[in-house]
Structures are given as structure tokens and as C-alpha cells.
TrEMBL record:
Keywords assigned: Signal transduction inhibitor
Source organism per UniProt: Cyclopterus lumpus (Lumpsucker)
Biased composition (Low complexity): 8-35
One Pfam family named in its UniProt record: RGS
SMART domains per record: RGS (SM00315)
Signal peptide: none
Organism phylogeny: Eukaryota, Metazoa, Chordata, Craniata, Vertebrata
Superkingdom field: Eukaryota
Protein name (Swiss-Prot/TrEMBL): RGS domain-containing protein
Span list, region Disordered: 1-35
GO biological process terms on file: negative regulation of signal transduction
């Protein structure tokens, strides 16, 4: 309905020339390059995104977004949508969210409203409920809690007290249903609050116009 050596004598190991595949070795300034390192595609990327400024079919690239679950990054990547798909997003929020390209475009809009964490939380919950046989539930639940539920997190989502208290209790022995109520609440929030604004936004209109212009004449 989810992404981090000192020498034995105690000093910082000198930079090793000729080893470009080990970022941060030279001085290791807080290892700050892990979350915000340059896009590996560099200048080869053909555009910022497909949604409003070009017709190429490149995929979404992370732009200053810190995502802790690699599957969430994968879920946000999508090919360029078709005109038919984009038109269907206006029929219902469910159709928008069922389409990878729709989620991607909607997420970019949420970023402009400073509420991107809602989409990231929803995606993290989707992956959480599907990865039952991989990383232990407790570990994955803790990551989601610290990223989106904790009041100390800069990406904390807005939940009512009942749902928040339920999660706090369940975190003692988390299971695959721990975040179900919270995920539904955030989904409903996006549907009622952000979705109508997205449909009237330039983000959506530009994408629709671009694809309409590219469509062959009947």
C-alpha cells in the first residue's frame, strides 16, 4: 500500500594514490561522502529528470536524498511513463501509486512541499512487509522506527497519538504488522492532502503536456 581505517599506530592512514575506488581515504573527513557522494553517473546523466525538461528515457537519479534502505532506492527508479499511464493517474490515487513512474513523479512533487518523507516511509513499509525471509524483522523495524517514527528524526512522519503509541508498544517485539496502521494513515494523508495539489501542479501538467506533444498524430 526501503543505504557506510585508522592505522594500527593510531594515526590516519595516508592517502593511497591510484586507488580511486576507495572514497574518503585521504584524511577521512568524517566520512561525510557516504550519504552525499557525487552521483556515479556524473556528467553522463542526460538530464535532471524526465518529468518536465526532456524526452529521454533516463531513470530517476537520487538528488540529495538520504535513503537508508537500498530497496527503497530501487522502488523510486522508473522508466519514462507513457501518455496513457500519466492520464490514468488522474483517475485515482491508487492508480498513481500502483505505477512506479507515478510514484516517482509524485515523490518529486512532495519534495517541493517538504513532505517527501511520507512517500519514503510508505515505500519502506512496503519493503518491510515483503522481506520476511531476509534481514531479521527486529533490525528492519528499528531502521524504520529511527528514520520515520522517532521524534528525534528529521524525517519524522505525522501520526496521531494512538498509532504512535501502538508502534512504541509493538517495538518491544516487532512483527510484519507493526507499521500497518501507520502506513495506512500516511497513505490516506497523501491521498486527501497532497494528491489533489499534485494533479493541479506544474509537475504533473508539464509531464502531461510533454508526452502529449510527443505522441504521434492520430
Amino acid at each position: 500500500m526501503s543505504v557506510q581505517q585508522e592505522s594500527a599506530a593510531g594515526g590516519t592512514a595516508p592517502a593511497q594514490p591510484g586507488q580511486p575506488g576507495q572514497p574518503g581515504q585521504a584524511g577521512q573527513p568524517g566520512q561525510a561522502g557516504q550519504a552525499g557522494q557525487a552521483n556515479p553517473r556524473g556528467s553522463n546523466a542526460c538530464c535532471f529528470c524526465w518529468c518536465c525538461c526532456c524526452s529521454c528515457s533516463c531513470i530517476f537519479e537520487e538528488i540529495n536524498v538520504e535513503i537508508t534502505h537500498p530497496n527503497v532506492v530501487h522502488a523510486l527508479c522508473s522508466p519514462k511513463p507513457t501518455l496513457e499511464e500519466v492520464c490514468s493517474w488522474g483517475q485515482s490515487f491508487d492508480k498513481l501509486m500502483c505505477c512506479p513512474a507515478g510514484r516517482n513523479s509524485f515523490r518529486q512533487f512532495l519534495r517541493t512541499e517538504f513532505s517527501e518523507e511520507n512517500m519514503l516511509f510508505w515505500l519502506a513499509c512496503e519493503e518491510f512487509s515483503k522481506d520476511a525471509n531476509k534481514t531479521p524483522v527486529e533490525d528492519r523495524a528499528r531502521v524504520i522506527y529511527e528514520d520515520y517514527i522517532s521524534i528525534l528524526s528529521p524525517k519524522e512522519v505525522s501520526l496521531d497519538s494512538r498509532v504512535r503509541e501502538s508502534i512504541n508498544r509493538n517495538m518491544q517485539e516487532p512483527n510484519l504488522q507493526t507499521f500497518e496502521d501507520a502506513q495506512l494513515q500516511i497513505y490516506t494523508l497523501m491521498q486527501r492532502d497532497s494528491y489533489p495539489r499534485y494533479m493541479n501542479s506544474q509537475t504533473y501538467k508539464n509531464l502531461l503536456n510533454t508526452l502529449s506533444e510527443q505522441s504521434p498524430e492520430p
